[in-house]
Specification:
It is built from seven helices and 15 strands. The chain is an alpha/beta fold. It has two domains: 142 residues, 3-Layer(aba) Sandwich (Rossmann fold), CATH 3.40.50; 101 residues, OB fold (Dihydrolipoamide Acetyltransferase, E2P), CATH 2.40.50.1020.
Length: 252
């Protein structure tokens, strides 16, 4: 029987997709549900499903990040809330997608396409080139939504940080540090919310609590235990890279 993983940070959306898939494709076995990209990547490695239904916007790794990291080893169907003006990017890149709210007719088309692939033994598409094409077109749609500056508490004052000057964000259970080369401050916005407004090509998540400006990375190196750490330009701090995000530094 074919198997699948569903990844979406909204519980009700996951349940609705599961319900619709159960009706449209009773033979499909949903082996796991994930609420962020990191869990999705781990689940795909563990279960090796035939299909991954990936929400584009998730905390941690995005659906695009997960698809790229799987290197074509699984069939990917993107699930997205982007408006219709972004759909040409999906079509141009030949990506299979479902637009929220998911329509029964569109889901049936996707199911038929997947069933046809399995019956003919067709392999999953190489997603690398697809992602490059897609992200180039999609960036035009989302650029205007980006955060341009961050207002953070610094002692008894408020510090304004232009986003391009921020070296990294580091969160704990209550606050998020905003660190530049000359100052730092605190905000209450968690990493999950920040990611929605930051350019994922410029701010990389390297562990659950850290987003780093990739232009601020001086170098990546392995420590005495074999883990990866990054040195930050303009800072004496070293930031630890979790195993989930080590793929960003292949060859380090």
């Amino acid at each position: 029987m074919p198997t699948a993983v569903i990844a979406d940070d909204e519980y009700l959306q996951r349940q609705e997709l599961r319900r619709m898939l159960n009706k449209a494709w009773p033979e499909l076995v949903i082996v796991d549900e994930c609420e962020d990209g990191s869990d999705a990547l781990e689940s795909i490695a563990r279960h090796q499903p035939d299909i991954a239904f990936l929400d584009i916007r998730m905390p941690g790794l995005s659906g695009l990040d997960v698809a790229r990291a799987t290197e074509g080893k699984v069939n990917v169907v993107f699930v997205t809330a982007y408006d219709i003006h972004a759909i040409d990017a999906f079509d141009l890149a030949a990506c299979d997608y479902l637009l929220k709210p998911i329509q029964t007719e569109r889901l049936n088309q996707t199911v038929q396409r997947m069933q046809s692939k399995f019956s003919t033994g067709e392999k999953a598409n190489d997603l690398i080139q697809m992602m490059e094409t897609f992200e180039k077109r999609l960036s035009e749609q989302t650029r205007k939504e980006r955060i341009r500056w961050v207002s953070a508490s610094s002692g008894k004052s408020i510090q304004i940080f232009p986003v391009e000057e921020i070296l990294f964000f580091e969160s704990d259970t209550r606050y998020t540090r905003v660190v530049s080369a000359t100052d730092e401050g605190l905000i209450r916005t968690p990493i999950k919310e920040l990611q929605k407004g930051l350019d994922p090509e410029h701010f990389w998540q390297i562990n659950r609590g850290v987003l780093v400006n990739m232009h601020a990375i001086a170098r990546a190196h392995r420590d005495e235990l074999g883990g990866i750490r990054v040195d930050i330009k303009g800072s004496t701090e070293q930031l630890k890279v979790s195993q989930t995000y080590a793929w960003r530094f292949k060859g380090s």
